[in-house]
Automatic annotation (TrEMBL):
<dbReference type="InterPro" id="IPR050771">
    <property type="entry name" value="Alpha-ketoacid_DH_E1_comp"/>
</dbReference>
<dbReference type="GO" id="GO:0000287">
    <property type="term" value="F:magnesium ion binding"/>
</dbReference>
<dbReference type="GO" id="GO:0004739">
    <property type="term" value="F:pyruvate dehydrogenase (acetyl-transferring) activity"/>
</dbReference>
<dbReference type="GO" id="GO:0009083">
    <property type="term" value="P:branched-chain amino acid catabolic process"/>
</dbReference>
<protein>
    <submittedName>
        <fullName>Pyruvate dehydrogenase E1 component alpha subunit</fullName>
        <ecNumber>1.2.4.1</ecNumber>
    </submittedName>
</protein>
<keyword id="KW-0786">Thiamine pyrophosphate</keyword>
<dbReference type="InterPro" id="IPR029061">
    <property type="entry name" value="THDP-binding"/>
</dbReference>
<dbReference type="InterPro" id="IPR001017">
    <property type="entry name" value="DH_E1"/>
</dbReference>
<keyword id="KW-0670">Pyruvate</keyword>
<keyword id="KW-0560">Oxidoreductase</keyword>
<dbReference type="Pfam" id="PF00676">
    <property type="entry name" value="E1_dh"/>
</dbReference>
<feature type="domain" description="Dehydrogenase E1 component">
    <location>
        <begin position="70"/>
        <end position="339"/>
    </location>
</feature>
<dbReference type="InterPro" id="IPR017596">
    <property type="entry name" value="PdhA/BkdA"/>
</dbReference>
């Protein structure tokens, strides 16, 4: 689908006036709905917001249907990948169930020349950037050390080291600045990453040099098994202003609001306003990864409460009220999602295992004696097994 990433209305001044963002507000204590930007509530009711309505004035019924389709497709991809792991086709999978609006809303706001640095859960963002279906899963099957060529889609391969990508994004943003272009770097990370030194260091550098970078935190309420309340006694967005980075909290289950605040932050960065920190308040409905059992650390009542805030259900409710989500349209979306899942399954289950020695490929840009020695040792080790290649 295509969403025009240039808002219909731009605001004047040397850079965009983001209202709550530029106020470097501190907000109230608590981790709930206080201070959230919300345009579409859990019941599918549209709310006016004089700060952000202009940023989505071009989003009519057709565009919202396209965003809804994106979220349905990525939810189906996620379910299929989880099933593939349970069936032994993948070694591991980090589900995104519940976070579709945060990823699709922000991902569809980006331009092709923006560059994304993500963690390991941003499958929806990768889908928006044009990652191949099989490429989403290659690394989780163990057939590659990454998944795609970052420069093909302007998105780095997923970072497993928590928070490291924020420094990568900031460094890239400084390069953009030096080149004199108006592209933007975007770093995606979770609430747990905000306790890492890398994230704090990245905020310092970004603020100091007014780097064109967006720090997009998906607060999904859990850093693996620990609730966000253990590490944040105030909203996470309150931390960034202490570094000199304006911040905003948005309902991460509201695709329209996420699109609006991301567009506003992108425009701020493009016009010399520097970095912005976005806290998208959402919820991880499934496990941290398929190796996790979330029933051991959260109760069913909490899960039920967040099911009532489902990001897809609210868009469905709104479109139903508009008479736009016909049965024919529902069936078409479901058919596309199933077709995408089937294509992905067929592609991943027929991947050939790589030659074991390819693990040494592309480690260094030029020949390296130490690596050559390791390769020789590993080759001789493999020959001790049946077959010359160790298979």
């Amino acid at each position: 689908m295509t969403i025009d990433n240039q808002p219909a209305t731009r605001r004047g001044g040397s850079h965009t006036d983001l209202g709550a963002i530029d106020e470097l507000r501190l907000g109230d204590a608590g981790l709930g709905d206080l201070g959230l930007v919300r345009l579409l509530d859990a019941h599918g009711v549209r709310h006016e917001d004089d700060r952000y309505d202009a940023w989505v004035s071009d989003i009519g019924t057709d565009q919202l249907l396209a965003l809804y389709e994106d979220m349905q497709v990525i939810r189906r991809i996620d379910a299929e990948a989880t099933a593939l792991q349970r069936q032994g086709e993948l070694g591991l999978w980090p589900p995104l169930l519940g976070q579709e609006a945060a990823q699709i809303g922000s991902g569809r706001a980006l331009r092709a020349d923006d560059f994304v640095f993500s963690s390991y859960r941003e499958h929806g963002v990768a889908y928006c950037r044009g990652a191949g279906l099989v490429d989403l899963l290659r690394v989780w099957r163990g057939t590659t050390q990454s998944g795609w060529n970052p420069y093909d889609i302007n998105m780095a391969t997923p970072q497993v080291i928590i928070g490291a990508q924020t420094l990568h994004a900031t460094g890239y943003a400084l390069g953009i600045q030096a080149d004199g272009t108006d592209a933007v770097a975007v770093a995606y990370f979770g609430d747990g990453a905000t306790s890492e030194g890398d994230v704090n260091e990245a905020l310092i550098f970004a603020a100091t040099y007014a780097a064109p970078v967006i720090f997009f935190c998906q607060n999904n309420q859990y850093a693996i098994s620990e609730p966000v309340s253990l590490q944040a006694q105030r909203p996470i967005a309150d931390r960034a202003p202490g570094f000199g980075v304006p911040s905003i909290r948005v309902d991460g289950n509201d695709v329209l609001a996420v699109l609006a605040v991301t567009r506003a932050a992108l425009d701020r960065a493009r016009t010399g306003g520097g970095p912005t920190f976005i806290e998208a308040v959402t919820y991880r409905m499934g496990p941290h990864t398929t190796a996790d059992d979330p029933t051991r650390y959260r109760d069913a009542a909490e899960l039920d409460e967040w099911r009532g805030k489902d990001p897809l259900a609210r868009v469905e409710a709104f479109l139903d009220a508009q008479g736009a989500l016909t049965e024919e349209r529902r069936q078409a979306v479901a058919a596309k999602a199933d077709a995408v899942a089937a294509e992905m399954r067929a592609g991943i289950t027929t991947l050939a295992d790589p030659d074991p020695l390819t693990v040494f490929d592309n480690v260094y840009a030029e020949p390296h004696t130490g690596l050559s020695r390791q390769r020789d040792h590993y080759s001789r080790y493999l020959r001790t097994f049946v077959g010359s290649d160790g298979r």
